[in-house]
Amino acid sequence: MDCVAFGVHGAYRNQSRGYQFSYFPGMHAQDLEYTFFNGQEANGLGVPVLPAVAAVMQRWFVDFIVGGTGNSYTQIPVYTAQANMVNITGTGYPVVRDPAANKRCRYWLEGLS
To answer: 42 - beta bridge partners?
Structure first.
């Protein structure tokens, strides 16, 4: 899945935005409980959902949909050739390099073109 997302960034000439969800346990699709947060205290595995993180993510998504400059979604950097993305950790939102921006993903994506 990482390589597919990396390929999508390339398809949009690296002008897209992306995030990495690294809050424990860091499982595939775990961010959905945050995207669609509606007050639940824990996810299906019993891991607590952090309401403050969910509020930030939802604000980013709504602001992105509404559009405009200076909105909160701009905290998610433009991907660019540096492969920038925000890492949602539960304790902060540092900008990191996309771990999928690597030789392995480039190799697999070459076969698709």
So the answer is: 48
SS3 94: coil
User: What residue ranges do the domains of the chain occupy?
Assistant: 2-110
Q: State pLDDT tens for residues 63-86.
A: 888 876 667 777 889 999 999 999
Across the chain, where does the E strand assignment appear? 19-21, 84-88, 95-97
Going by C-alpha positions, the residue among 63, 65, 66 that lies closest to residue 75 is 63
pLDDT tens string 1-16: 689 999 999 999 999 9
pTM, entire model: 0.85
Q: What is the DSSP string of 51-77?
A: HHHHHHHHHHHHHHHH--SSSGGGGS-
Strands 84-88 and 19-21: parallel
CB under 8 Å, gap of 24 or more: what pairs does 23-26 form?
Answer: 23/50, 23/53, 23/88, 23/89, 23/90, 24/90
Structure token digits, residue 113: 């073109």
What is the dihedral sign for C-alpha 53, 55, 61, 63? Answer: negative
